[in-house]
Amino acid sequence: MKIEDLGYNEFFEKRRIENKLGDAEIGRVVAEHKERYIVKTPDGEFEAEITGNLRFSAARREDYPAVGDWVALNVYDADFAIIHAILPRLSVISRQAVGKFGEQQIIAANVDYAFILQAIDRDFNINRIERYMTICYSSKVNPIIVLTKTDLIPPDQLQEKVEYIRQRIKNIPVVTISNETKEGYESLINIIEKGKTYCMLGSSGVGKSSLANNLSGKSLMKTDTISDSTGKGRHVTSHRELLVLDNGGILIDNPGMREVGVVDATDGAAQVFDEISKFSMNCKFHDCTHTSEIGCAVLEALEKGEINNSAYENYLKIVKEKAFFETSVLEKKKKDKIFGRMLKEYHKKDIKGTRS
Ligand code: GDP
Ligand code: ZN
Question: Which pTM does this prediction carry?
Fold first, then answer.
């Protein structure tokens, strides 16, 4: 196995050189449990801890390694290594740390794509998809929508729902699969790129475990053996949270990921898009941004108190995140300015008391 097979690329190589980690061995964190880590390198897998130095300088949760991180380590013997640096992250999926208000807990680092899973039968909810999309955008992760359980609805209904999603959510791949019949698996496997890292987002019961099991084939079942011909690898029994799939893609599936978006999906934010899009049908302009336009039905509804203020602000934030993700750096700056002005306008209105 080469380090590229674990997802290493020029981005991280550049960071390694910038951080003067010339001689260190580089590995990827494949599991984490209470500040103990399993790190995979081309030589095998190692149980690892962080150096005292790293621990002392760690001010926040995100200063600790997470699954998916690239770390510099010193290997001491066949079964033990010390992590002394974390390479800068390309992307971070995090959530509010339990019991620690304001602190973020990193669920996974350096994820390229997130499969947003949703079962097509019951529980199908486009707002929730969009909510997960915003998590992706703010995490710098590319979303791919995966509709599961296609075996449970008739093909024409499936087609209808897919059309509906494609109409509302543009420029994002939509794949439909059945974990039962494996229908759609070919298309899904085709879009998985070698050396890219994937994760799964979605409510409980949508088929994440089934998909992970199916994609990884035997690798999930296989008990870990000495993983390398050099014999440096060690028999570790803990559950792997980062897997290299048969087709070369890398899948992160860890328990924390299951909690991502759960809070958001239940706090009412999921309703936001639905309400706004309902009102927006009556906006005067087809391309209304619902921020300052004359004849904007959304702003009208806001004034009448038919749309909740914080829901609206949340909507603007989501739109902003989406726009940010989709535009180049240069465009970003311009948009930020315009958006800032829009927000100012909006708040000015607020002060004048035109809204309840
Ligand atoms: P998770 O909670 O997202 O990991 O979902 P699971 O993979 O555990 O699936 C939940 C339940 O749905 C299980 O009983 C699965 O057998 C079932 N399931 C998952 N995917 C499909 C599918 O594509 N079709 C059907 N009919 N059942 C599925
Ligand atoms: Zn409008």
Answer: 0.75
